[in-house]
């Protein structure tokens, strides 16, 4: 048709070509717009509340904070009914708005709604604003028939900062023969109780801490350092009969798994990464599997590592290395049902075995303090996937 139009012009080729191009462009515009400018406009909209991990714990969504997945956000309706929607892996809890349509929408009537986020166990809201009031007004022509002038203030959560661990006495002493205390960086000291199995827990605040164990038959004194920053800390078991040896003086290397995968994909971690050998570990973009556990466990950038197929992940080296610690989280909810088991060997001799519980709510930091080991294994009792990030070692 366009060729015929050009032939009918009776003008020179350049002008005819220009006319053809103009006709072609015009026809394309008409065809593109044919469905109508409102064809893709939805007849409803979503009221979104954003949940984030408040890394610096200041109650404000600012630089460095991260999206937080799977946090229940509750919306209380004007009539008192409640709707709860979890935040997605991008951090958004989306409530569908459509006036008078209970079959297809979450918010269906004008009025005042109250929004509130519920952090998981071990976490807390960081803002003083616990409940927000959002007013939906009936406005003709608005998508969904209603609109709100102010949306949710971002809802920040952060882990309760605590140090947990356990210790066992020297063979010639009993647990009751010891006193345990903990001091902050300014020297303020607190007595730290423990149970009949030597388990202890202390809720603190960001900074450096020193635990001191004193007592026993020969009045033994042992100290253990810990740092609280962006996660709860689990200490490796402390055996006063054979406390950890002196760590090497080399530089600590923190492996962030951010320089292996160049897209939102996954990559088998090769031997040689960080100067270590790796078996059954995969580096993945934290949204690759669309699971909140991967997103919430991420500490740096957007990549984490996990044990492939839920089987044990192993790291080893012919030259002994110190394992300082690692952030761990459950990739999927099932991973929180049983313990993670961490073992370390010096050559053929098992020298460490620790257990801790993780969740998809976010990472805990396992402070290992393992010295001069040659192999490390991280495993789930039920062969679940364990997401890890920012593993620190010293060679």
Low-confidence segments, ≥5 residues, pLDDT <50? 1-41
The structural domain count equals 3
What is the end-to-end distance? 75 Å
State the secondary-structure class: mainly beta
Q: What's the structural blueprint in terms of helices and strands?
A:
Elements: H1 2-8, H2 13-33, E1 45-53, E2 66-67, E3 72-76, E4 82-86, E5 92-97, E6 111-117, E7 123-125, E8 132-138, E9 146-147, E10 155-159, E11 162-168, E12 178-184, E13 189-191, E14 199-203, E15 207-215, E16 220-228, E17 233-235, E18 238-239, E19 252-255, E20 266-268, E21 277-279, E22 281-285, H3 292-297, E23 303-307, E24 313-330, E25 340-346, E26 349-356, E27 364-380, E28 386-394
Parallel strand pairs: 1-10, 11-17, 11-18, 17-27
Antiparallel strand pairs: 1-2, 1-5, 3-4, 3-6, 6-8, 7-10, 8-9, 11-14, 12-13, 12-15, 15-16, 19-28, 20-22, 21-24, 22-23, 23-28, 24-27, 24-28, 25-26, 25-27
Helix pairs in contact: 1-2
Describe the protein.
The protein is mostly beta strands. The protein folds into three domains: 2-33, no CATH class; 45-158, Immunoglobulins (Immunoglobulin-like); 162-394, no CATH class. It is 9% helix and 44% strand. The chain contains three helices and 28 strands. It has helices spanning 2-8, 13-33, 292-297, and strands at residues 45-53, 66-67, 72-76, 82-86, 92-97, 111-117, 123-125, 132-138, 146-147, 155-159, 162-168, 178-184, 189-191, 199-203, 207-215, 220-228, 233-235, 238-239, 252-255, 266-268, 277-279, 281-285, 303-307, 313-330, 340-346, 349-356, 364-380, 386-394. Helix 1 packs antiparallel against helix 2. It is globular, with a radius of gyration of 29 Å. Residues 1-41 have low confidence and may be disordered.
């Amino acid at each position: 048709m366009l060729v015929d139009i050009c032939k009918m012009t009776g003008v020179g080729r350049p002008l005819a070509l220009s006319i053809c191009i103009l006709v072609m462009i015009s026809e394309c515009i008409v065809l593109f717009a044919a469905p109508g400018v409102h064809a893709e406009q939805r007849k409803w909209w979503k009221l979104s509340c954003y949940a984030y991990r408040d890394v610096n714990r200041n109650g404000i969504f600012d630089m460095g904070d991260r999206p937080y997945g799977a946090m229940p956000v509750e919306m209380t309706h004007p009539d008192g009914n409640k709707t709860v929607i979890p935040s997605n892996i991008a951090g958004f809890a989306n409530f569908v708005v459509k006036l008078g349509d209970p079959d297809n929408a979450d918010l269906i009537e004008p009025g005042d709604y109250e929004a509130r986020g519920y952090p998981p166990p071990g976490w807390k809201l960081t803002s003083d604003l616990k409940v927000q009031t959002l007013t939906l007004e009936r406005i003709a022509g608005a998508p969904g028939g209603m609109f709100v002038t102010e949306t949710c203030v971002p809802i920040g959560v952060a882990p309760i900062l605590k140090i947990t661990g356990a210790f066992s006495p020297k063979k010639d002493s009993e647990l009751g023969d010891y006193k345990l205390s903990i001091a902050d960086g300014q020297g303020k000291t607190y007595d730290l109780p423990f149970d009949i199995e030597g388990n202890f827990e202390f809720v603190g605040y960001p900074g450096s801490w020193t635990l001191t164990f004193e007592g026993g038959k020969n009045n033994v004194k042992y100290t253990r350092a810990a740092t609280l920053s962006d996660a709860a800390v689990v200490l490796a078991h402390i055996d006063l009969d054979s406390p950890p040896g002196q760590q090497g003086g080399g530089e600590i290397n923190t492996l962030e798994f951010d320089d292996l995968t160049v897209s939102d994909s996954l990559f088998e971690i090769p031997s040689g990464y960080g100067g270590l050998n790796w078996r059954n570990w995969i580096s993945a973009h934290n949204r690759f599997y669309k699971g909140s556990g991967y997103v919430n466990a991420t500490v740096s950038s957007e990549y984490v590592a996990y044990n492939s197929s839920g089987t044990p992940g192993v790291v080893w080296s012919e030259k002994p290395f110190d394992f300082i610690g690692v952030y761990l989280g459950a990739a999927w909810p099932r991973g929180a049902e049983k313990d993670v088991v961490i073992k370390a060997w010096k050559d053929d001799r098992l020298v460490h075995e620790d257990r801790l519980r993780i969740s998809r709510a976010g990472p805990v930091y396992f402070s290992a303090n393992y010295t001069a080991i040659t192999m490390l294994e991280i495993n789930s009792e039920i062969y679940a996937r364990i997401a890890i990030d920012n593993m620190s070692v010293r060679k």
